[in-house]
């Protein structure tokens, strides 16, 4: 009998594997020579990654490798192998237990292509930023090569790329719905989300001789099964393959009815004198327990790949159903047919406790790149080498971002003591430390130790966001733990300054003016990044972002506390162009807001439809999965697909760039807003054109500088960065490594 794990064992509660006697390695080996130096004759686990190996907790393979090492396993790493043959995958020999395969901290397609599907010229995760060091859809390619190298060795895939492709998904780069990565990669297991629990248990169970095909009860895993397979006779399947008909209609029993059935008799109290069988009423706790048990043994059948690839309504329905089953406290298993087999997804993993996540981050990392890279510069490392990750997860639920789908919306925070110890270790071990901590953050800067006030409510909640349309009344918004951390971090000996590089959730911050004062007074170096994303309510509702009222309230407090601190400081707002539901008029209004507030954006971000994001569903189907779907009807969401329109939307964000003026003049005339062309203060662009400008914008419609769409801030696109089973190093709107050479996105003209 198979039963999905409901109470996970402690992450560090396993008996260590026998190889723990070798002790921790200075670096996880990348060659046979290093293995021999360590006294190893083989590796128990080999991790294959598309990134360079940097032994730092912000890089997924290092984190997972050190975690497995702490369990007693010998772990080797193959980085950026030549994928044209299986030879490079044999360099460490045959692993005793399994291959762990990841594309790296970033999705390989996001890593290689811009928002306009153009090939990037560099790669932040490669020595000297060399491009083209990993294949497209790297997880699939690497997994296939592992199979070729050593047939019969189990292959476990993970990372952001695998995690967000675990069911049928729209693929922006091929402009079609693709299958789950599981049947394409031929992997034995897929681990998704923060999969430390799963990857550790897989290793121990394989080490005990269990077959990979027998491991079917782990949360956070997906695998292929026959169409009729169920874990046990206790399980039921709910059919949700059609819109508005989710499963059989069940008539609920009347709790006050007297029935003669065997079931009623079995639940009754002893028979009365007249032979009547009184019904036993269940308490609320008993009813809830029965309901939880029922959900724990239910799998939902999603529309098949063959259905969703040709039917936008069913695709949107599958996406909506999938996202509603994302809370580990109440999520049900899912299955989706792919031809003659099904992809089976167990419920998401339970979050790590504070003690467990502390242990993950306090492994004996070398905190620098592998010595084999010599003096080569790795941009992603340069950007995070002096930062500390304090939490993971995000309860924001922004539709264009995949952090919530991947890491979950339950925040997993480290302890203050653990963070301080890492700062001290960084001070002592990281080359080049001058006293500045560049960031204390994560997916957001200010969700540290924020969570639902009631664990029972949290486990039963099915909201997609805890802060939209308003902050939930059950959400704790107390920033005092973060204030305490900031103050203690500044007091560490040798630390001169602590800046905050992660993006701020300002709608939360306004509930804690003391936090804003602390931040503005001590941790802002002239500019602070925040992300309104847009100004128009219609677009913001499709993003699940707060209105500009929260921005205005935050700006008032930011300006006030900056003045009180005697500092001249500015906000840097981020905006997305061409998001689903955005009209030309919306972008025009945003451009007018930018001009009114004297903002000139240096770089802009165009929406990229990334796998599994709700906004991607809107883009592909032009339906709104945030609302109930209907075969005939439902809310229509316009998608910005046309190349000229996408360029126009970016041009509105860079209204001040003369290269864009011809395109904008043409569009304003078409929109009947020629009144905005002229030299007045309330007009958007001038009627004159500087000599030698505008030809590119007029003929090609190229908006912004040559960096536009390439070195823009990582919004919907480069938030897709995730290691195998871990969040660390995830580039996001709030985290750094994804975009090399990032400059401040907006500069405010000083009076």
Describe the 3D structure:
- The chain is of the alpha/beta class.
- Among the domains are: 204 residues, 3-Layer(aba) Sandwich (Rossmann fold); 295 residues, pyruvate-formate lyase- activating enzyme, CATH 3.80.30.20.
- It is 30% helix and 12% strand.
- It contains 26 helices and 25 strands.
- The strands form eight sheets. The protein has a ten-stranded mixed β-sheet, with helices on both faces. A three-stranded parallel β-sheet has the order 21-22-24. The protein has a two-stranded antiparallel ribbon with strand order 2-14.
- Strand 12 and strand 13 form a beta hairpin.
- Helix 17 packs parallel to helix 19.
- The chain is globular, with a radius of gyration of 27 Å.
- The C terminus is likely disordered.
CATH architecture of the domain at 354-608 and 709-748: Alpha-Beta Horseshoe
Q: Tell me, what is the CATH class of the domain at 354-608 and 709-748?
A: Alpha Beta
Overall SS class: alpha/beta
Task: Give the strand tally.
Answer: 25
Uncertain regions spanning at least 5 consecutive residues: 247-272, 697-751
CATH superfamily of the domain at 354-608 and 709-748: tm_1862 like domain
Distance between the termini: 72 Å
The largest pleated sheet is described as: 10 strands, mixed
CATH topology of the domain at 354-608 and 709-748: pyruvate-formate lyase- activating enzyme
Shape: globular
Strand content: 5-15%
Approximately how much helix is present in the residues?
25-40%
Q: Name the average pLDDT.
A: 88
Number of helices: 26
If strands are numbered along the chain, what order do they take across the biggest sheet?
3-1-4-5-8-9-13-12-11-10
What integer value in Å does the Rg equal?
Answer: 27 Å
């Amino acid at each position: 009998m198979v039963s999905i794990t409901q109470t996970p064992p402690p992450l560090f509660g396993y008996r260590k594997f026998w190889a723990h006697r070798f002790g921790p390695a200075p670096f996880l080996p990348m060659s046979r020579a290093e293995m021999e130096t360590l006294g190893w004759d083989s590796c128990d686990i080999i991790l294959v990654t598309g990134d360079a190996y940097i032994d730092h907790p912000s890089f997924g393979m290092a984190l997972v490798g050190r975690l497995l090492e702490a369990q007693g396993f010998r772990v080797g790493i193959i980085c950026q192998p030549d994928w044209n043959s299986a030879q490079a995958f044999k360099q460490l020999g045959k692993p005793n237990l399994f291959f762990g395969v990841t594309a790296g901290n970033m999705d390989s397609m996001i890593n290689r292509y811009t928002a306009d599907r153009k090939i990037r010229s560099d790669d932040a995760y490669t020595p000297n930023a060399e491009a083209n060091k990993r294949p497209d859809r790297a997880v699939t390619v690497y997994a296939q090569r592992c199979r070729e190298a050593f047939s019969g060795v189990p292959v476990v895939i993970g990372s952001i790329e695998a995690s967000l492709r675990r069911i049928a998904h729209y693929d922006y780069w091929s402009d079609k719905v693709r299958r789950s990565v599981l049947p394409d990669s031929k992997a034995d297991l897929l681990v998704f989300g923060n999969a430390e629990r799963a990857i550790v248990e897989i290793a121990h169970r394989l080490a005990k001789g269990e077959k990979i095909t027998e491991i079917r009860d782990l949360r956070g895993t997906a695998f292929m099964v026959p169409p009729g397979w169920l874990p046990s006779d206790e399980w039921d399947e709910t059919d949700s393959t059609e819109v508005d008909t989710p499963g059989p209609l069940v008539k609920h029993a009347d709790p006050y009815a007297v029935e003669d059935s065997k079931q009623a008799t079995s639940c009754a109290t002893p028979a009365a004198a007249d032979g009547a069988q009184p019904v036993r009423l269940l308490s609320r706790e008993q009813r809830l327990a029965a309901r939880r048990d029922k959900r724990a043994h239910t799998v939902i059948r999603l529309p098949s790949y063959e259905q969703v690839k040709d039917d936008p309504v069913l695709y949107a329905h599958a996406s909506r159903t999938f996202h509603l089953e994302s809370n580990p406290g109440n999520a049900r298993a899912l299955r989706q047919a792919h031809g003659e087999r099904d992809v089976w997804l167990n419920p998401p993993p339970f979050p790590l406790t504070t003690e467990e996540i502390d242990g993950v981050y306090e492994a004996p990392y070398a905190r620098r790149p592998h010595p084999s890279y010599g003096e080569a510069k790795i941009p992603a490392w340069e950007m995070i080498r002096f930062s500390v990750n304090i939490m993971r997860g995000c309860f924001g639920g922004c539709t264009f971002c995949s952090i919530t789908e991947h890491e979950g919306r339950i925040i997993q925070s480290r302890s203050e003591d653990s963070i301080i110890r890492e700062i001290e270790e960084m001070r002592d071990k990281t080359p080049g430390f001058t006293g500045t901590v560049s960031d204390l953050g994560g997916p957001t800067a200010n969700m540290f130790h924020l969570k639902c006030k009631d664990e029972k409510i949290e486990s039963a909640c099915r909201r997609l966001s805890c802060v939209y349309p308003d902050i939930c009344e059950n959400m704790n918004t107390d920033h005092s733990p973060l204030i305490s951390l900031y103050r203690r971090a500044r007091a560490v000996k040798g630390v001169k300054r602590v800046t905050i590089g992660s993006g701020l959730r300002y709608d939360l911050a306004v509930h804690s003016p003391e936090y804003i004062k602390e931040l503005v007074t001590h941790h802002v170096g002239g500019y602070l990044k925040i992300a309104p994303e847009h100004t128009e309510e219609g677009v913001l509702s499709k993003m699940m972002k707060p209105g500009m009222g929260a921005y205005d309230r935050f700006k008032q407090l930011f300006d006030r506390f900056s003045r009180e601190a005697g500092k001249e400081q500015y906000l840097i707002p981020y905006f997305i162009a061409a998001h689903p539901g955005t009209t030309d008029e919306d972008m025009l209004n945003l451009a007018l807001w930018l001009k009114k507030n004297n903002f000139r954006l240096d770089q802009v971000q165009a929406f990229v439809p990334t796998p599994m994001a709700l906004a991607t569903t809107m883009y592909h189907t032009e339906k709104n999965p945030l609302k109930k779907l209907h075969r005939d009807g439902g809310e229509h969401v316009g998608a910005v697909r046309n190349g000229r329109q996408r360029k126009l939307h970016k041009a509105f964000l860079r209204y001040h760039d003369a290269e864009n003026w011809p395109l904008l003049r043409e569009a304003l005339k078409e929109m009947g807003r020629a009144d905005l062309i002229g030299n007045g203060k309330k007009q958007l662009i001038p009627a004159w054109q500087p000599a030698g400008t505008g030809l590119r914008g007029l003929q090609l419609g190229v908006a912004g500088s040559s960096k536009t769409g390439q070195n823009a801030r990582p919004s919907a696109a480069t938030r897709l960065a995730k290691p195998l089973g871990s969040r660390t190093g995830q580039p996001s709107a709030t985290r750094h490594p994804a975009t090399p050479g990032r400059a401040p996105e907006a500069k405010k003209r000083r009076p």
